[in-house]
Write a structure and sequence with these properties.
The complex is a heterodimer of chains A (276) and B (591).
Chain A lengths: L7 H14 L1 H18 L5 H21 L9 H27 L2 H6 L6 H19 L1 H9 L10 H23 L5 H15 L14 H7 L4 H13 L7 H29 L4
Helix pairs in contact in A: 2-6, 3-4, 3-6, 4-6, 4-7, 4-8, 4-9, 4-11, 6-8, 8-11, 8-12, 11-12
Chain B lengths: L5 E12 L9 H9 L6 E12 L3 E6 L5 H8 L7 E6 L3 E4 L12 H12 L3 H15 L14 H14 L4 E5 L7 H16 L3 E5 L3 H7 L2 E6 L2 E7 H13 L7 H6 L80 E7 L7 H10 L18 H11 L2 H8 L2 H6 L5 E7 H16 L6 H9 L6 H7 L3 H10 L2 H15 L5 H16 L24 H14 L2 H34 L1
Parallel strand pairs in B: 3-7, 3-8, 5-6, 6-7, 10-11
Antiparallel strand pairs in B: 1-2, 1-4, 8-9
The chains are: A mainly alpha (276), B alpha/beta (591).
Amino acid sequence: MTLRTSSLPSAAAQYASNLWRRREFAWFLALGNLKARNASTSLGLFWWVLDPILLGSIYALVFGVIFQVDRDTEAYVAYLMAGMFAFHYTRQALTGSVNSIVSNTRLLANLNFPRLVLPISSLMESAFGFAASLVVYYVIIFPIDGVRPTAAIVWLIPAFIIHTFFNLGLGSIAARVAVPFRDVNNLVPYLLRLWLYMSPVIYPVTRLEAAPENLVRILEFNPMFPILAMYRHALMGDLQPLTASDVWMSTAWAAALALGGVATFIAAEGRMSRYV
Amino acid sequence: MTNSQLAIVARGVGVRFRPTIDRKPTLRRSIGSLRHKEREVVVALDDVDVEVRKGEAFGVIGRNGAGKSTLLRVFAKTLKPDEGTINVYGKTSTLLSLGVGFNPQLSGRRNVLLGGLAAGLTKAEIDAKFDDIVDYAEIRSAIDRPVKTYSSGMFARLAFSVGMALDPNILLLDEVLAVGDEQFQKKSKAAMRELLDRAGTIVFVSHSLAGVAEFCDRAMWMDSGHPVIVGEATEVVEQYKHWVRAGSRSQDLDAIRAGTLPAVAAQMPIADTSTPPAPVQPWAGYEHSGFSHLLVKDPAVTIESGQFLRTIDPSERYEVKETGGRPPQPPLADPATIKVFHGVNKSASGSFSLTIEEGLRHAGEERRIINRFSLFNKYSLDELLDMLNAEGSTAEFLADHGSYGTAKRLNRPVTYLTVIREPVIRAVSVYSWLAKHSPKMIGDRDLVKWGSDAHKTFGTAIQFLAPDPKHRREVANTHTAAEIVDRATKVLETEFSLVAPSDLLDEALFVTAHEMQIPSLTPWKRDDRQPDRPPLADLDPGAVDALSEILSAEIDFYNLHRARFLSLWEGYRFGTEFEQYHQRARQEHRT
């Protein structure tokens, strides 16, 4: 018997082609889950939009009306909702990915397919919900803050792509870790909560001036900073200017996480069905 | 044998699990295990060499935990072996369980698509085959209804139909065909025969020994992850049965592997009634051990009088008096919500909930099944909760997969089922039929002989009547065996009204005739290719008498004993386990 070692690039190409062959599976699995969810609650898919809006409203009430963090921010509700919607996408993607492997044990035990299909499929679900929420963004924001779409809205496309790759990487890592360590499931909500407060979702970036300088320096590594900046620029135009470093930073984060996350996931894939 | 004639080749395949059966790896345990470098390792497969040929049906039998399903997962390539090589030549369709990839909330149409995509078809392929799939499953009128509204038979047909749509050369089956209605059974068998006719290959893991013997060309008997023997299916099944009857002693396995154990007939356990067989441990390692897993009574539920067999009224409610057997569980918030039912498992396999469903429907109950043995053996509470969340509806989840433990921990009302194994009834039925129709063959003299050996053989009927050993001895001393049989039959007929005794008697006779290979009974033996088999009840009384004559002429005394023994042996095992349940429950109540 000859021992053949396939080179890393060719193995990656092989995996990618297997994955591509299963694209319809991922897509219809996502669609099926959306449909099933739609059937099980009376508001159905509307919850996708309602969730971040309700959350945003609560924060708008607490921080905008009670604590008045919006004193020096123009169009605070637009600012808050843009951040909330984008962060909600990551939240959904992450929780979905964590469950994607663990809740599909029957598929894992029975069928042989690139496991990455499952987190990707769940990412599709979240992406769909996010897209739906963006559609109603101006419907809410215009009556309140008078913000309307500008030419900067084309930035939504790169922002969405970068953000999606970022979520894919993050989700793959989470899904991979959640298989042997089910505790991750319980931990994720807290990490997300912490991350939310460590990101400029509710408060304007300018408010950080009051925070300890060392902490701010650390916070600026938070990939949510540049990602949110891109969305805000796209949705609010010149009210939220965009810097080149935001674009590069978020792209770098997304590329690194997507590559690293997917690679980690695939490396562990062979062992996953042992835990089911 | 050249490679072109082989479908699957396994060489030195080994699979070892870190403890995953009842202990899922979590962060805490992983950290813990860093300290204790030694981790307990479960050897699921050990140096398995096997070749499956093209065009054959290959059965895999053995006790639970023997590694059968793991082997199938290795064949399906969903589990990578730790050592050894595995080559599969052909397109494989895996039906380790039915309806993989299905979403019960969605329509049948949607699920055909999902199941097909999950199995590896493209949408275009599924669309092209869609009509065939639906026609084959015979659910055209229901195809746009959510699958959760399907009957078990419809679901099984649709799922199987999707599995076959892959047009496989190799079909891997794990007990799935034991579910569904008769129509499904027929269809699936016909499809499998057709596959074999086209030189396709089937690997078939089953507890139904009769099924394996009937359907498979060759079979492998596995134990503790290692093959015991591979050979002609009927031969392997016979050897396995013999070993089970002789007490399932692990120390015999090497002799069987070496082929040095005396032939089956010479060691018929009938000559061996003085040695009680090894006790069965129904809960060992929380795994099902062979026959035991379809057993009767949960020790956690004890009825006031302790006489569970006498409390058969399905409308009665019982209180949970104690817990035991399984890890300690908190008491149910509202004990009055536990309801005890008695169902009959006719399939004698791992998938018996569907049979129970029928029973429940018969009893006019809504469809809520608590399958005592399914989920908690496989999943931790956290996982179950995850699954519950993922499924959306708790009530439905419980109805579909629920277990007593789940319900209890979630503090939900449950309908609790008790399952009586069919062979017990069969034993009593055969016995009483013979006693009725051929009194000269089963005279009191013989029965009394068996009756005096109650603990070993005739215990079935007696245990039915008298679960308490003291009481049993009294019954055995004061009643003739014929009376006991008669009484037990009556109990079965009146109290276990979920089955029609005459059907069962039919079935029992045919199964026995089949197992005994009595030539004169072949017109009536089980045969799917001959669906028009006349039911025994339809025969005129003269024919029944004639049958009885044939029986007396054809069956010599030895064979008669053997037939009786075969039936009763299973009954005995049932009895022993039943007794152990009670003892354990009583003990744990005391402590």
